[in-house]
Amino acid sequence: MEILILGCGVSGLSTGLRLLEAGHRVRIWAKALPPHTTSNVAAAVWYPYRAYPEDKVTAWGAEAYRAFQRLAETPESGVLMADVLDLKPVAVGDPWWVSAVEGFRHARPEELPPGYADGYALAAPVIDTSVYLAYLQRAFEARGGTLFTRTVSDLTEAFAACAVVVNCVGLGARELLGDREIHPARGQVVRVRANGFRRVLLDDTGPNALAYIVPRGEDIVLGGIDEDGSESTALDPATRAGILRRCANLVHHFDAAFAASLRALLTAGERPGAGSAEETVRAEMVSEAAGLRPVRSTVRLERERPAPDRWLIHNYGHGGAGVTLSWGCAAEVVTLVAEIARPA
Ligand SMILES: Cc1cc2nc3c(=O)[nH]c(=O)nc-3n(C[C@H](O)[C@H](O)[C@H](O)COP(=O)(O)OP(=O)(O)OC[C@H]3O[C@@H](n4cnc5c(N)ncnc54)[C@H](O)[C@@H]3O)c2cc1C
User: Fold this and answer.
1) At what angle do helices 54-71 and 322-341 cross, to 10 degrees?
2) Hey, which of 186, 323, 325 would you mutate to test ligand 1's pocket, going by the most ligand atoms within 8 Å of its Cβ?
3) For 258-307, how does the pLDDT look when each residue is reduced to its tens digit (9 = 90+)?
4) How do strand 79-88 and strand 200-203 relate by DSSP bridges?
5) In whole numbers, what is the pLDDT of the chain averaged over residues?
6) 170-199 in b/e burial notation, b at 16+ Cβ within 10 A?
7) What is the Cα 49 distance to its own chain's centre?
8) 111 CA → ligand 1 middle, Å
């Protein structure tokens, strides 16, 4: 079939690639291409964060987990498997998504820093989005997919070009569809040079929340914040300082020298004779970024038939887990397209 995908983040590209593999002809129209998408800002560790409903997220996440395990065997994909420690301030049961991952256990007491009573330890994919989105785009184009920079303001534009449209516009669904269920949750990350620290550390409910440390190939992503309703993608120095402080506290138990270097980033500018805080921090950091998570009550993945000869498949609203769910959702879109071609 001829298929038009709207959006070129991780959802649009993964869906496009799977549809090409299934034998369809696919083109993508997107307002912005990588590296200028929210997907490029993602940390990105496999973790079902702010995405619902739980049963579907677990199934989509499991499919993506397996796909990323395979991709980790291809170094140029930017995907690697990492040890993750998700720290908890109180004793907790297993997470609802436990069946999606391998090697899950609760943290041993000696692994827990002061202030934490429990933790999830698991192997999970880390996806270096600075490498991975470009890898996906190359794979999509190598299979014959085509990409166009084009903003769609009304779906009739898209249907004028193609009878089957797949909507992967993320937060853009607010304007395109008038979807009032989706809203932005602002995130900001700081990237520092890689220094040999390899473990992913997460705290989203404990004394340093929200903090995450995600070592990738060339750098380490430090986060974060999660500000519901904020529309700003401007970089905020106070937010950066808070991220550095919380991540220093989080990593101290595991690597005191790493923690000290993060604290040095914070205080270097305050010493007499040192450059301004801004200059000093910038000299040490690799980069930083801010983005808006597309949070929705539930991921919208469903098929509509707006006219007898038109099909619309939605795949958006993945919250803080668009990368985590990408291959699972892409596979479901392929199934929904196959049902159009071969009605029951
Ligand atoms: C700081 C931060 C950290 C994160 N960390 C993680 C993580 O560790 N793990 C994880 O899984 N997820 C993480 N996320 C969430 C993840 O980034 C998103 O869930 C994911 O990027 C959503 O992908 P998407 O392709 O649906 O949307 P996007 O990446 O936003 O792509 C949407 C595409 O649609 C296009 N578009 C929009 N409107 C239109 C229109 N009208 N016409 C044409 N094109 C349009 C855009 O230009 C873009 O190409 C994080 C997010 C942030 C901000």
Assistant:
1) 100
2) 323
3) 999 999 888 765 555 555 555 555 447 899 999 999 999 999 999 999 99
4) parallel
5) 94
6) bbbbbebbebeebbbbbbbbbbbeeeebeb
7) 9
8) 33
What percentage of the chain has pLDDT greater than the value 70? 95
**Residues lining ligand 1, judged by CB closer than 6 Å?**
6-12, 29-32, 37-39, 41-45, 47, 151-152, 168-172, 176, 187, 189, 223-224, 291, 293-294, 316, 318-324
In the block, tokens 């609760």 appear at: 106
Of 53, 64, 71, nearest to 139 (Cα)? 71
Token digits for 231? 């529309």
CA dihedral of 240, 246, 250, 254, whole degrees rounded to 10 = 50
Supply the CATH classification number for the domain 2-341. Answer: 3.40.50.720
**pLDDT at 40 > cutoff 50:** yes
**Could you write out the DSSP letters of every residue in 59-89?**
HHHHHHHHHHHHHTTSGGGTEEEEEEEEEES
Quickly state the pLDDT bin for 343 (edges 50, 70, 90): low
Residues 150, 165: Cα–Cα separation, whole Å: 14
Helix or strand holding residue 147 (H, E): strand 146-149
- Confidence (pTM): 0.96
- For 275, half-sphere exposure in the C-beta direction (CA atoms, 13 angstrom radius) is 9
pLDDT in tens, 43-81: 999 999 999 999 999 999 999 999 999 999 999 999 999
Q: What are residue 311's DSSP bridge partners?
A: 164
Question: Is the preceding peptide bond at 283 cis, omega within 30 degrees of 0?
Answer: no
The alpha carbon of 116 and the centre of ligand 1 are apart by a number of angstroms equal to 32
